[in-house]
Write a structure and sequence with these properties.
11 helices, HesA/MoeB/ThiF family protein
C-alpha cells in the first residue's frame, strides 16, 4: 500500500484481528457488486469504499425521489431526479480515489450472470424478491457468496448466503413480502441494517471473524431486541427458521 493509503486506513489497521489476517490487502485486491443504492445499499457503498475495497460496481436503475431522502443518506435535495447509481459512484470517487468504481443499471436476466461473475462478493440491497431471487440464482450458479439484508416497517434481517445455503432455501415463497413503498419504514432502520451488511461484507472479503453464514440476524426497532437464528434449508415450502 502507498503511504497515503496507510494513513487513510490507519484506524482499522490498529485492529489486531484485521491487521494480523492481512485483511486490508485482501480487501484492496477484491471486488464487490452492490445491487441497490437505496436505504440498505447506501451505507454499504460508502463504508466499503471508505474501508478500501479495490473495485466496486453499483447497480441500480432508479432515480432519486423526494420520498427517499428521509432514509437514503447518500442523497440530497439537489439529487432528486438523478440516477442513484451515478450519484453513488460520484460519492465514492469523492470519498476514496483509490477505489475503482463503475455503474450498472437495473439487474435483469440478461446481465445478471456477467455482473455476478465479475465480482468476488455480491451484496443484495434490493427491495423486491423478484430481483433477490434473480441474484440468488446467479450466485448459486457461480458459487458466489451473497450478503443479504432486508428492512421494512420496524424490523430488519441480515444473513450471508452461499452455495451451501441460498435465499431460496430459506425463503422459498415470499409472495407476501411487502416493500418499503407498501409497508413503510423508519428512517434509521435501513441505515442500521445496511451498516451491518457492510460489516459482514468486510468480514467475508477480509477473511476475518465469523460471517453470518447459515445464520439469520433479526432486529426489532421498537424494542431494540436482536437475535441470531440458525438456518436450515426449508423442506415444506415454509421459511426454515420459523
Amino acid at each position: 500500500m502507498s503511504r497515503p493509503e496507510l494513513r487513510r486506513y490507519a484506524r482499522q489497521l490498529l485492529v489486531p484481528e484485521w491487521l494480523d489476517a492481512g485483511a486490508q490487502e485482501r480487501l484492496r485486491a477484491a471486488s464487490a457488486l452492490v445491487v441497490g443504492a437505496g436505504g440498505l445499499g447506501g451505507p454499504v457503498i460508502v463504508q466499503l469504499a471508505g474501508a478500501g475495497l479495490g473495485r466496486l460496481t453499483v447497480a441500480d436503475g432508479d432515480t432519486v425521489a423526494l420520498s427517499n431522502l428521509h432514509r437514503q443518506t447518500l442523497y440530497s435535495l439537489s439529487d432528486v431526479g438523478r440516477s442513484k447509481a451515478e450519484v453513488a459512484a460520484a460519492r465514492v470517487q469523492g470519498l476514496n480515489p483509490h477505489v475503482v468504481v463503475q455503474t450498472a443499471g437495473q439487474v435483469v436476466a440478461g446481465n445478471v450472470a456477467a455482473l455476478v461473475a465479475a465480482a468476488d462478493l455480491v451484496v443484495d440491497a434490493t427491495d423486491n424478491f423478484e430481483t433477490r431471487y434473480l441474484l440468488a440464482d446467479a450466485c448459486a450458479a457461480a458459487g458466489k457468496s451473497c450478503v443479504w439484508g432486508a428492512a421494512s416497517g420496524t424490523s430488519g434481517l441480515v444473513s450471508v448466503f452461499g452455495p451451501e445455503l441460498g435465499l431460496r432455501d430459506v425463503f422459498p415463497d415470499a409472495q407476501d413480502e411487502l416493500s418499503c413503498d407498501e409497508a413503510g419504514v423508519l428512517g434509521p432502520l435501513p441505515n442500521l441494517i445496511g451498516s451491518l451488511m457492510a460489516l459482514e461484507s468486510l468480514k467475508v472479503l477480509g477473511g476475518v471473524g465469523e460471517p453470518l453464514r447459515g445464520r439469520l440476524w433479526t432486529f426489532d426497532a421498537l424494542t431494540g431486541r436482536s437475535r441470531t437464528i440458525e438456518l436450515r434449508p426449508a423442506r415444506d415450502g415454509s421459511s426454515s427458521f420459523l
